[in-house]
Amino acid sequence: MAIIVRGTICPEKTTFVTPPEFAQQVGFVCYPRGGEIPRHVHRPVPRRIEGTSEVLVVGEGRCAVDLFDKERNLLATRELAPGDVIIIVGGGHGFRMLEDTVLLEVKQGPYVGDDEKEHF
Fold first, then answer.
1. Most buried residue, 14, 56, 64, 106, by CB count within 10 Å?
2. Secondary structure E strands in 1-120
3. What span, in angstroms and rounded, lies between the C-alpha atoms of 101 and 52?
4. What are the strands, taking DSSP E only, across 21-73?
5. For residues 85 and 26, is the Cβ–Cβ distance under 8 A?
6. Three-state SS for 115?
């Protein structure tokens, strides 16, 4: 349902935490001093994506995330702290803020409004 990457993780080499078939590719890309990413553009590769996966980064504060399976059964509750990243790839989810919290959210677009969500 989700992958949590704790803010304390700092790999020494490039490490992706999602497998290549996931709609969102999330990983740590490590470069030595003086390294560079050559300038480039991304070709318009056609992709078919169904559903929405989300990546959230806790910037400030703390929150609890509840993770649900496709039948809406609670599977787990995890606390997230500054620097933690959660990659939500299936099922349902909800967040409860334990402190004033700032989340950076990344997901596929375009956003079609609240019609893309089913609250339960």
1. 56
2. 2-5, 15-16, 27-28, 54-60, 63-68, 74-80, 85-88, 92-97, 102-107
3. 23
4. 27-28, 54-60, 63-68
5. yes
6. helix
